[in-house]
């Protein structure tokens, strides 16, 4: 009873639209200055944005307990993702130290030509991400190796990062093992495989166009490019400092097998960490104390060559602290905005633009991107617009898988393009490439959204909710039959009552 009263009391606290825009615009301005003007980390901007949102909520009648609960609920939903981030930091460290990533770099430089490097790495990242269901794992392992190979053969880091991000997030969206793909389908009660199949209509054309563009860019760069790192020197350095063995293939294979067996991501990734540490000790001959040091601070080597040292000095728990802290601050801000109803007010205001199928899809895409920018979290960018626009899709007789496709296109796929978003910060910290530099080359991420918007206006692959009409007809038919059966049964009962003179209670 108390919970119901508290919910009703909360619903009576209405924050005006113009007031809800204060923390939104303030955070956007602060982020803009910190990232583009002062070139500092976005953490303090998110902190001050959350404080502004909390103060406004308090002024409009929300208690500190209400605000704290919103923050707790938001962070609690993302705890597994934050733990995965820390584990990926350790995987990057041990997979470099064990020789797995150096081996990928060495043989990649042997067999991949500069002209075909970008489309090749894009397709390979797509494949690995579909198998693992994790864009972050793909970026943290194969992505790191791709940067090394690319710079060794004369390809700049920005287009390499764009190809890695495009492939990793493309594969993530089409993998039934992806947590974000499962979440999007689950919150709107859409069959997982129907959701994935419906996304193929937008992601496959985007992937084909991306391959063509990566091929074009690759050929142009291979003609004019100069190696940032001397490829021969890098290969010599790898051979001098790492031992190659068939055992290096074991950790990646084990992780893929575990994930294919639907083992949860945390134990699967921890298996990769453990196996990597074993290889460091028994294949590379490193001491246990050094391995523990690398797990925390990241793997590092000193050759006197600054570029080589920077390339192969990465990972560790410590390297993920900045990403995790930003994730917590972003979730705190988003949780305050969501729990106090301010984000809901903004989204409801955007519903005024929903007057046709095309506008509905465009509004869904825009809202997801907006929440992604303001809330800096891809999960919130899917959950909130999904809940708000579900009724609009039903009114236009559109199947909910159109909504889930739009949410993935506008929310999940644009997350790595935003410098202060958790995904964007992760990519930048792992690949050492600014989001604004690789975003133009992340073709799949922004092209899928454009294609989804065009489909909405052109009425292409916009599935109707025909099953509702069929279900209603069946239900009406069944109701008529049931009604007739009941009447016949009652008539029989009446005649039986008369014939056998049964009591009225029977």
TrEMBL record:
InterPro entries: Na/H_antiport_NhaC, Na/H_Antiport_NhaC-like_C, NhaC_Na-H+_Antiporter. It is found in: Cell membrane. Its main location: membrane. Belongs to the NhaC Na(+)/H(+) (TC 2.A.35) antiporter family. It is a multi-pass membrane protein. This is Na+/H+ antiporter NhaC. Residues 167-459 form the Na+/H+ antiporter NhaC-like C-terminal domain. It comes from the Bacteria. GO terms for molecular function: antiporter activity. One of its GO terms (cellular component) is plasma membrane. Keywords: Antiport, Cell membrane, Membrane, Transmembrane, Transmembrane helix, Transport. The chain crosses the membrane at residues 15-38, 44-61, 82-105, 111-131, 199-222, 242-260, 320-347, 359-380, 435-458. Residues 474-506 are annotated as: Disordered. Coiled coil: none annotated.
């Amino acid at each position: 009873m108390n919970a119901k009263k508290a919910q009703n009391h909360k619903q009576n606290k209405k924050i005006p639209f113009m007031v809800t825009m204060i923390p939104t615009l303030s955070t956007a301005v602060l982020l803009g200055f910190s990232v583009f003007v002062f070139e500092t980390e976005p953490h303090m901007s998110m902190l001050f944005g959350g404080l502004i949102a909390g103060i406004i909520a308090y002024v409009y009648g929300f208690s500190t307990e209400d605000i704290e609960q919103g923050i707790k609920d938001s962070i609690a939903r993302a705890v597994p993702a934050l733990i995965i981030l820390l584990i990926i930091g350790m995987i990057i460290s041990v997979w470099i130290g064990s020789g797995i990533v150096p081996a990928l770099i060495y043989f990649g430089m042997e067999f991949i030509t500069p002209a075909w490097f970008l489309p090749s790495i894009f397709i390979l990242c797509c494949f690995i991400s579909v198998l693992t269901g994790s864009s972050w794992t793909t970026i943290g392992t194969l992505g790191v190796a791709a940067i090394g190979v690319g710079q060794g053969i004369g390809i700049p880091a920005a287009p390499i990062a764009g190809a890695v991000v495009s492939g990793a997030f493309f594969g993530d969206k089409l993998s039934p093992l992806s947590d974000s793909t499962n979440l999007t389908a689950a919150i709107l009660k859409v069959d997982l495989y129907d959701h994935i199949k419906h996304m193929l209509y937008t992601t496959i054309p985007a992937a084909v166009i991306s391959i063509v563009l990566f091929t074009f860019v690759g050929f142009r760069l291979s003609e004019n490019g100069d190696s940032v790192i001397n490829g021969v020197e890098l290969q010599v350095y790898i051979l001098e400092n790492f031992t190659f063995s068939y055992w290096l293939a074991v950790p990646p294979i084990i992780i893929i097998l575990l994930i294919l067996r639907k083992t949860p991501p945390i134990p699967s990734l921890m298996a990769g960490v453990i196996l990597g540490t074993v290889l460091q000790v028994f294949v590379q001959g490193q001491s246990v104390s050094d391995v523990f040091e690398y797990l925390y601070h990241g793997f590092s080597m000193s050759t006197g060559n600054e570029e080589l040292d920077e390339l192969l000095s990465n990972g560790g728990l410590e390297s993920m602290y900045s990403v995790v802290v930003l994730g917590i601050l972003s979730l705190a801000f988003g949780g305050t905005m969501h729990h106090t109803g301010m984000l809901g007010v903004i989204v409801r205001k955007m519903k005024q633009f929903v007057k046709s199928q095309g506008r509905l899809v465009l509004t869904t895409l825009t809202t997801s991107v907006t929440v992604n920018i303001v809330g800096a979290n891809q999960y919130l960018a899917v959950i909130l617009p999904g809940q708000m626009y579900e009724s609009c899709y039903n009114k236009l007789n559109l199947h909910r898988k159109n909504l889930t496709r739009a949410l993935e296109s506008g929310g999940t796929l644009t997350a790595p393009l935003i410098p202060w978003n958790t995904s964007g910060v992760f990519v930048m910290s792992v690949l050492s490439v600014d989001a604004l530099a690789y975003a133009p080359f992340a073709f799949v991420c922004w092209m899928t959204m454009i294609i989804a918007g065009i489909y909405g206006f052109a009425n292409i692959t916009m599935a109707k909710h025909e099953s509702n009409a069929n279900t209603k007809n069946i239900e009406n038919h069944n109701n008529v039959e049931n009604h007739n059966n009941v009447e016949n049964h009652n008539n029989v009962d009446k005649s039986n009552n008369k014939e056998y003179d049964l009591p009225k209670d029977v």
